[in-house]
Queue: 3 jobs
Job 1
Amino acid sequence: MKLFLFHTPEEVPEQGAPDCAIAIDVLRATTTMAAALAAGAEAIQVFSDIDDLLTTSETWPTDKRLRAGERGGGKVEGCDLGNSPLDHSPERSGGKRLFMSTTNGTRCLKRIEHAPTVITAALTTRQAVVDFVLSQQPETVWIVGSGWEGTYSLEDTVCAGAIIHGIIAATGQTFKDLAGNDAAIAAVSLYLQWQDQLLDLMHYASHGQRLLRLNNEADLQYCAQLDVLNIVPRQHELGVLGL
Ligand code: 3SL
């Protein structure tokens, strides 16, 4: 198995495809996806474009859908929800399809949607993702951070490092066996440095600071938790994720 890390969707090679692609947007899209599915959402359908989301979701029964739209950290007008994992509970999300568009996370998923296996990862689901990858034994894995509008994000990289570290710990293999590129090795160093201070790291991260300015401290606390959900959101049809 070879693990490659790309910090942003823009870094993903134009040519070729991995056996398994993993999208990460710790703050907050992939954390929210996991929270929604853990709360019993039927599925999550992702869109790059808000107008497409609004049009497609119109075809769905009103009581069976939730429309989640985020731009610049805030809720998009016309949507039911923004992009907070704390929005999801069995009462609100159970049995519903989440139609979702966010600034970077859903765009990241769109970039890798043609890989044979596409999953999402967050710190909250890290161990479940490690177990999934080990059970599937893909030859090549692309781990893709969502970043922020084309730039590197600390929180996505530390999550990638946590996943790679988990695979190394479980298999006893070395970087020589597993690392597909230098970024994969650097991410593990970042994780080892910050593993006991993940919430502090969220506070230093530029997007963490953006969310704090929007009064989302509770979201940072939620997103910084490691291994609290034993689920792996997985794409079952193009642009639609479930368990
Ligand atoms: O960029 C994204 O996809 C979002 O996760 C950003 S936010 O955390 O909702 O602001």
Note: The pocket of (2R)-3-sulfolactic acid is lined by residues 25, 27-29, 70, 73, 83, 102-105, 146, 211 (CB under 6 Å).
Job 2
Amino acid sequence: MRLKQAGTAVVAAVTVLLAAGCTPDEGNRPGGDLKGVGSGSECVIAAPVKVGLVLSLTNGAAFAGEYQKQGLELAFKQLNERKGVHYEVLLEDDETSPDKGVAVYEKLINTDRVSVLVGPTLSSVAFPAFGDAQEAGVPAIGISTTAEGIPQLGDYIFRDSLPEQYALAASIPAAKQALNLKTVAILHDSVDEFTSSAYTTMKETLEHEGIRIVEDESFKTTDTEFGAQLGKVAAAKPDAVVLSALPGATIPLVKQARSMGISSPIVGGNAFNSPFMIGKLGEAAENLIVGGAWSASSGTTGNEDFINAFTAAYGRAPDQFAAQAFTAAQLIDVAVRADCDGNREAIKDNLGQILELDTILGSLSIDEDGEVYQKPVVQMVKDGRLTLLDR
Ligand code: 1QQ
């Protein structure tokens, strides 16, 4: 993990930029005086620090985007109640579309000239959008983008979204132990970048755990009929099903599986961390197992206050997506206050040096690639609620 390795980081950044034949665009720098006086809780910055949020507020990924919006709104409201640094938040809807995501990223970078970006919601939107942030030299934080390779897009790219790789490395062994798993069937959406990446990780983890894959079927993001694939799964009689899908396909797929008599536990990817999806599935959601970044039952620093404040503000309990979004605002504030500087370079440098920070996700660090480190949780749906699975 990196702490104050600025020399190497700068050389690496320059090398990458020279190799790409470009330098961060000076013309779109944030306006106002963003270099403050003092540091930490005493830091005072004259100009507002502009933060661009890009979230899926409509279409397929709005199930997560709406919670993220509220988590971020709550966090920046609380941060703005503190003295010294004022955050001006600019929110854009990427409509769950890579093209729209890139368009609003470019607007926030070049027209609004934000200091830092948060989101987008989906990995498939993040891949092209983060490329633009990297090229422009604007730090960007993924809050739910769990696919492999996201932080490696460049040294301005960070995430506090637990990679699927680590979530599955926890959930598959936990399921194996709790359910004495020997065989599974895998089903996956082969179009979406997050679900395809998770599928590869699932297979690797299953192989590593010595669990035999007795059926391996795929489908498309927009599919709604899964009879053919589920027929093969039923015939293979696996101890459990491992599913990599977004909610749009998960909901009909799990319902059809249950109505065809497939009652085995289903181990899923990050989309399962959604109470929206669990609510839509009703009874069919029982025994779904998922690894994730946050649990309402975790005794992490500030978790209870966060849950209470969120519930009071929005009339519903937060989910993992809200918790990760809330945490991103905290990371930005820590990075800004570290050198009392709201400029892009300072935020980028200090985000990359976060080490064992106490957050509602637990103790959290960010390594030199911009990758997050935290302890995963494993949960199972019991009586309609995500409940910690004993490990
Ligand atoms: C990704 C995800 C999605 C499930 C977030 C909503 O993990 O796209 O990476």
Note: The first helix runs from residue 6 to 20.
Job 3
Amino acid sequence: MKLEKKYPSEVYLNGKWLKPDEAYVSVFDRAFMFGDGVYEVTPFYKGKAFKLKEHLKRLQYSLDQIQVTFDAFSLENLMYEALDRLNLNETDAAVYIQVSRGAAARSHFIPEKIETSILLYAFPVALEGFENKTWEVMATEDKRWHRCDIKSTALLANVMANEEAIAAGFAENLLVRKGYFTEGSHSSLFFVKYGVLHTHPEGPEILSGVTRAEVINICADLNIKVVEKAVHIDELVEVDEIFVTGTTTQIIPISSITHKNKKVYTARKDSITRKLQKVFIERTRK
Ligand code: PDD
């Protein structure tokens, strides 16, 4: 079932707080025309940011990679203002930031004189109760570009992969490149094999998930070994647990994977996933 989403009552657009029906960008905005923009989603647990610096650092990385000159850290106060304006300090929420290269007459080259366009808003999000969920997912070929480390607004391949899963009754689509799992359409991916966590190494094939990094930190503290190595679809027979992570996903165990209409994985255990969820809740709620 698809959850109906509402527009936030107010958004920040290029220096002004506006009602959604007043917030417009040019038809020549390059994020609209080319997907020439980057974004970030930062969680706030009852008004308290989690890993704010890491999210802004990743936004800065994306901006630097696409050569947009803008200081991501200059947005910090606006993020808190967005929460205040929507009265989201007592509830769980997230802040969406989108930086577009800006508007200019259409050209494949990057125009010299162009003003960056900033959209920012807060929205409520359910960050509680994920420990009661398990997801049945599907797996399909990863058809995205080779710069998934850039958090680009050009998410058509992700949207299509996710839609394929939802239409077939699955919660997420795990993406496979040359036989190896990369990540989910909107989540990072972990496998537990012989008690050791496996996850795709950072690089152009995945987004460097902030939640993923925190799971790796937790593992170091719990003495759980992590190997940043991709898992092949044929290795699933050796896998006991799989879980996905993300800012809005949190940590959710995968109960089964269907690939080409065949169930290729059924969870055997969940003890390591449960341990990580418990510590993650402690850290995000402290
Ligand atoms: N997406 N990989 C992809 C492709 C993602 O889109 C996301 C999150 C993640 C998890 O990253 P993080 O732990 O930093 O949220 C991994 C966000 C939430 C979104 O697009 O809305």
Note: Residues 41, 158, 183, 186-188, 207, 209-212, 245-248 surround N-(5'-phosphopyridoxyl)-D-alanine (CB under 6 Å).
